[in-house]
Amino acid sequence: MNDLPFDLNAVRMLVQVAEARSFTTAAGQLGLSQSGLSRAISRLEAGLGVKLLQRNTRNVGLTPDGRQFVEQVTPLLCGLDDARRQLGDRPCTPSGTLKITAPSMFGRKVLVPLAGQLMAQYPQLQIEAVLSDRLVDLFEEGFDGALRTGPIADQRMIARRLRPLRWVTVASPAYLAEHGAPDRVQALHDHCCLAVRNLRSGRLVDWQFRAADGQLQEFTPPARMVFDSGDPLVEAALAGIGIVQVMDFAVADALADGRLQRVLQAAEGRSRELSLIYPPSRQCSPKLQVLADALLAGEW
């Protein structure tokens, strides 16, 4: 049998460079010099007899051959890691630091409680969570994964679909007792609505309702109070100030114990995709897998 024309360490290096799109970033993550990393990739290309990377002054990208190679070898690398752990009689117990980022409200309401459960279940697991609506760079900032809403454009990432986010329109029982519940969407013009201003466009963030024909229609709320983010909406609704439209997870506990009530429920229908994304090199990470399993269970 002929020897393989490459070593596995060089293949792992290639995957890291492909994900980071930067020799500098990948070298820092691997603890190598940039020149040493470049030489290893060059030897790998020479052994395979194909060009794997395209280099320019701004970034590094895979050639078509390189993309095909990385897509095929990444699952094999994960399988080798699993086999090595099993041969060493080392269970795939989550340990070490899981660095994850999530949108602010989802992080506070969903990720933090889940993180507490996981750390109680796995004493060797630590979690570093960055809760921000800023779109972080997973490679540059060393994240294991991220929770993202909407379509995922970055083809470097693996995206695992979670339960979609759904919007509900709610108010406190005290507010509804004083002002009554709107019986149709246009009746919101007679109510105190609380909204968010998009700081980029300067416009209020529209609400959405499903019309009789099944189509979603946008509605600009006649806002008497406006915030620069969605986080304060729940607190304001609980205080009885007015009606808000928020994602269901943000008010699940308040709806369950009666502190808030849904209105215009028949017109609900707004939703948005939610995904856990991560680089292919993290695919077999036990600490990321337990988080994915908890999120996929959908108990939030």
From TrEMBL:
Keywords: DNA-binding, Transcription, Transcription regulation. Gene3D superfamilies: 3.40.190.290, Winged helix-like DNA-binding domain superfamily/Winged helix DNA-binding domain (1.10.10.10). CDD domains: PBP2_CrgA_like. InterPro entries: LysR-type_TF_proteobact-type, LysR_HTH_N, LysR_subst-bd, WH-like_DNA-bd_sf, WH_DNA-bd_sf. GO terms for biological process: DNA-templated transcription. Residues 6-63 form the HTH lysR-type domain. One of its GO terms (molecular function) is DNA-binding transcription factor activity. Pfam families: HTH_1, LysR_substrate. Belongs to the LysR transcriptional regulatory family. PANTHER family: HTH-TYPE TRANSCRIPTIONAL ACTIVATOR TTDR-RELATED, HTH-TYPE TRANSCRIPTIONAL REGULATOR. This is LysR family transcriptional regulator.
